[in-house]
């Protein structure tokens, strides 16, 4: 199995260009099925999750063409079929085929989606939304069968502002009769990205990015076109890396407003950086102050940036706490940092980090999940000596060209067999 081998201690300088957002792209590809004939999506990141989604599109008799950063999807011969488990179990985002196939065909067969082991991650809010629109959902072992005679727009209140459920209900309601109102909707940029795609194919949607989204059903959707937003979590990860070991490190092609909460926290801990329209220039923070970090739904501090930020707090002079409000077990990587000399202690959904601790390279640390893997890469880049990471597929699935991007700015990182 391939491993990542990383030599720590280098200052990183130069430019890292941000790719299209994984968490937008994995919703946009299933959304393309709402188009009668074809659609175009620009700046899709070349990551493993996208490869699996393209395989699922082929199973549904769709074809696609990639030219440069343009992905054209042809849905003229779209045929409904059960989503094969060996594909749907590869990532959680396969659940977006529920919303689109329910919308298009009023029938879906899919096995329970996969995804990082950072908590139970039920999909009850998705199901509740589908049922509110008039669908019946049957679960046989880990397979969902969803049927509807017709879908009728309605008012849906989200018990929790779930990103996935908000998007999935938006997708299904595009083909419902009449108006659907989603209340307490998630406000993450991914929602706006998907909504702009649906609007481009002829759907009337207002309120995306706010807590109330209104969708007017319309079953003549076609010719969608959109661009994947820059990945805000990739951007946050590399800005945090700059605070750890940058020397005028340029993180380019980001949307600064999408990582505002992360930039505010970086200021809180004493980091200095220059903010331009779509670029952050940051250097190693000489003295890192401890802080209290609390993850929230957007626009609060993003849970996906919590694990990389933890590495920064191992270098703070004092005791920090991290309260994880979104997932129930997202501190596994914080425990693994102890193998490198960090002092972390998890108690329920609160992690205590005592700094400053010098980190030392460790061998064969198994990556537990995508963002935990990114955190371990950051830790290895500032640790003394060499670190090797295993199970690195989990990192490569969500960070486009991470080895190439880091090597380009002076990191000593490579994949070894
Ligand atoms: C999306 O997951 C992202 N994944 C996650 O990123 C991200 O952490 C999360 O949104 C929050 O921003 C994708 O977009 C593919 P949620 P999602 O529904 O949609 C509970 C990464 O590293 N919940 O907002 O699954 C759930 O258990 C990944 O890129 C229910 O209880 O997030 C969790 O505790 C990790 N019932 C919380 O809500 C439901 O029906 C957040 O889930 C749905 C969710």
Structure, described:
This protein is of the alpha+beta class and 417 residues long. It folds into 2 domains: 3-19 and 230-416, UDP-n-acetylglucosamine1-carboxyvinyl-transferase, Chain (Alpha-beta prism), CATH 3.65.10.10; 22-227, UDP-n-acetylglucosamine1-carboxyvinyl-transferase, Chain, CATH 3.65.10.10. Helices cover 31% and strands 26% of the residues. The strands form 6 sheets. A 4-stranded mixed sheet has the order 21-22-1-23. Helix 4 (96-105) packs parallel to helix 6. 53% of the residues are buried.
Named once each, the bound ligands are: ligand EPZ
What fraction strand?
A: 25-35%
Largest sheet: 4 strands, mixed
Q: So, CATH architecture of the largest domain?
A: Alpha-beta prism
Compute the CA-based radius of gyration. 21 Å
Return residue spans where pLDDT drops below 50 for at least 5 consecutive residues. Answer: none
Q: Please tally the β strands and state the result.
A: 23
What is the average per-residue confidence, as pLDDT, rounded to a whole number?
96
Question: What's the shape?
Answer: globular
**Helical segment tally?**
14
* CATH homologous superfamily descriptor of the largest domain: Enolpyruvate transferase domain
Q: Structural class, judged by helices and strands?
A: alpha+beta
Helix content: 25-40%
Strands side by side in the biggest sheet: 21-22-1-23
CATH topology of the largest domain: UDP-n-acetylglucosamine1-carboxyvinyl-transferase, Chain
Number of domains: 2
CATH class category name of the largest domain: Alpha Beta
- The end-to-end distance, rounded to whole angstroms, is 6 Å
